[in-house]
Design goal:
four-stranded antiparallel β-sheet, 4 strands, Alpha-Beta Plaits
């Protein structure tokens, strides 16, 4: 297994509901190391650019509105096999289909308000980390 990095976003609903600390604690318990972290209120341009891959999908406008409604926590996490392990820890995108004990099963409200975002591949992680942490040396 290789040491990898993934981008995690604690989404507005989880921040608003006060779950940031519990989610961060879970990541650390799962062996992730926080490499970088900051809280932000995304602009429309940031959200549209980040989710550009979904631009033609019917949910795009609602997704952008949701992600810009209040603050999020942007985190770069690192560990062996980070991407696959992170996806296992957060659970299915639809919290109704997520395994018990996963972050989305515990903290998501709906398919859209699913508490967290995570990179789905090494290439995606590189883009996503660069999008929110441009020019930062994340040694």
């Amino acid at each position: 297994m290789a040491l990898e990095r993934t981008l995690s976003i604690i989404k507005p609903n989880a921040v608003e509901d006060g779950h940031t600390g519990a989610i961060l604690q879970r990541f650390e318990q799962e062996g992730f190391r926080v490499v970088a972290m900051r809280m932000a209120h995304l602009t429309r341009a940031q959200a549209e650019g980040f989710y550009a891959v979904h631009k033609e999908r019917p949910f795009f406008a609602d997704l952008v509105q949701f992600m810009t409604r209040s603050r999020v926590v942007l985190i770069v996490l690192e560990r062996e096999d980070a991407i696959a392990h992170y996806r296992k820890v957060i659970g299915a995108t639809d919290p109704a289909k997520a395994e018990p004990g996963t972050i989305r099963k515990l903290y998501a409200k709906s398919l859209q308000e699913n508490a967290v975002h995570g990179s789905d591949a090494v290439e995606t992680a590189r883009f996503e980390i660069g999008w929110f942490f441009p020019g930062h040396d994340l040694a």
